[in-house]
Amino acid sequence: MSGAEKITVKVTEVVPLNELVTRFRFERADGGLLPTFSGGAHTVVEMHDGGITRLNPYSLMSDPMDQTAYTISVRRDDEGRGGSLFMHQQVKAGDEMVISFPVNLFSLDLRAKKHLFLAGGIGITPFLAQIKQLQRFNGNWELHYACRSAALGSYADELTDHYPNETHVYYDDEKQTIDLVNLLDGQPLGTHVYVCGPKGMIDWVRKTAAAEGWPREAIHYEEFLAPQPGKPFEVKLAISNKTIEVGENESLLEAMERENVDAPYLCRGGACGQCETRVIDYAGNFIHRDHWLDDAEHAGGEKIMPCVSRFEGKTLVLDR
Amino acid sequence: MSTFAFPPSIKSRPVYGTLEPQAGAAHMFIVDGEGANAVLDLAQRAPSMMQLAHIVYITRGTDFAAALKALNPAQFYQGPTYGAALPRIRRSLADAKMGLQVYLAGTEGLMGQAMNEAVIAGIPHTAIQTEHRGATARRMQCVHCKGITEDVETDPFVCSHCGLNLFVRDHYSRRIAAFQGVCIDAEDPGNVPVQKGIYE
């Protein structure tokens, strides 16, 4: 089976935080301890929603050294494909679920002299674990957290209470914005920036930092892309010798899994590169949505990331 | 010889480029000997950088001080050896802010040691520009006694610490900023190949 190893857990708490965000607590179903992880890691949660199996990644927000439970916070997305709605509407305390071992694609660079965290909305979650990790080592960090309003600012109050000197919260509805150029200016040598939030925010931070002469290696970002629905299309899988149909509301990766084709994956969000698949033949257009392949590879027609990318056209043959 | 094309080698061996102007809040140049020419060349292409520049020039018997000063850098330092310049380099890096660009030019020994200081100060090694100029002599570490021999031009050479005959390898340590020298006659003491230039 592809992906990270699995753990069967019991949902022990479901706590609505505000209109959009609900927190879930998982403990091992067999009563044992969970693996420790590193701040920034995510787990892939398996959801059995009617006939559909969804595997969605969520950042772990609990203390990385706390092996008794993992917690995640899920923002409801009414326009999405239904994973977050399933979590909000179907999952109850006492349920058993299957989650993956933690996988970290957004880890701290512990060589940094200072960690500067920039969060947008639900992008706060990986930082909650990273802050707990750094607090143990008396790490040097600072958080700048932009959210829509005080009512929707998940964990803003706790963070301000616990870390009043490190936490800076900005509310859109009060016209508060991160003064990024000013913030970057004068940071001590060896500062690393971490940004998690909407794509626009990530692009803004990467561009601004580059213009200010920050090394690329000092800018870390994580953006999970949810697979987007699209027109159904047909794929021929050369190794498995199968022709399968990718439905409107499923990803190419999910369609392969439905047909019991063992396709590799890790993040399921276009970031990690694990599911990279060679294209043998095609006639049509790729709809590349990942940020793993570069522009030349996207134009080249030789590779596709089945977790988020789609295809429109007559023939697509994959080496899988 | 002011520029030299190093033959392709193993991955461990550092490769050097040509200094390019970069966006940045400040620019620090650390150069020795003919490395000064790399700064002079860069300044021709991007003269305005010099307003934000700190040049640390280690002479190694050359005299580019007047030419470098004529670029009007914000700060200028001239010293006879890397050791003499080191306290200033460390202090400047300790006080530096993000946005600082570091440029190294000159001998491999100078670039390697200065890069190590910049990395310790928090700059990723891939973000530091280098350009080789001048001597091709190497800074070597004896793997047996760990002693460093500077400015090695021949292969094999005699370790200046323990006296073993050492073979010059391309295996390089960024942390020590030196190439590895390994005893060449351990099996058959005294059977030492004829000494030649490293790149002959």
Layout of helices and strands:
The complex is a heterodimer of chains A (320) and B (200).
Chain A: E1 6-16, E2 21-28, E3 41-49, E4 52-59, E5 70-75, H1 83-90, E6 96-100, E7 103-104, E8 114-120, H2 125-136, E9 141-147, H3 156-162, E10 167-171, H4 180-184, E11 191-196, H5 199-211, E12 219-222, E13 233-237, E14 242-246, H6 252-258, E15 277-287, H7 295-300, E16 303-304, E17 310-318
Chain B: E1 26-32, H1 36-45, E2 53-58, H2 65-69, E3 75-79, H3 82-95, E4 100-106, H4 108-120, E5 129-132, E6 138-142, E7 148-152, E8 154-155, E9 157-158, E10 165-173, E11 178-183, E12 196-197
Q: Care to describe what's here?
A:
The complex is a heterodimer of chains A (320) and B (200). Chain A has 320 residues and is an alpha/beta fold. The two termini of chain A are 14 Å apart. The model of chain A has no long low-confidence stretch (mean pLDDT 95). Chain B is an alpha/beta fold and 200 residues long. Helices cover 21% and strands 30% of the residues of chain B. The longest helix of chain B has 14 residues. Chain B is elongated. The chains are: A alpha/beta (320), B alpha/beta (200). Chains A and B meet through loops of A and loops of B.
Supply database-style keywords.
heterodimer; A: 320 residues; alpha/beta; Elongation Factor Tu (Ef-tu), domain 3; Rossmann fold; Ubiquitin-like (UB roll); 7-stranded antiparallel beta sheet; 5-stranded parallel beta sheet; 7 helices; 18% helix; 34% strand; globular; B: 200 residues; 2 domains; 5-stranded mixed beta sheet; 4 helices; 12 strands; 21% helix; 30% strand; elongated
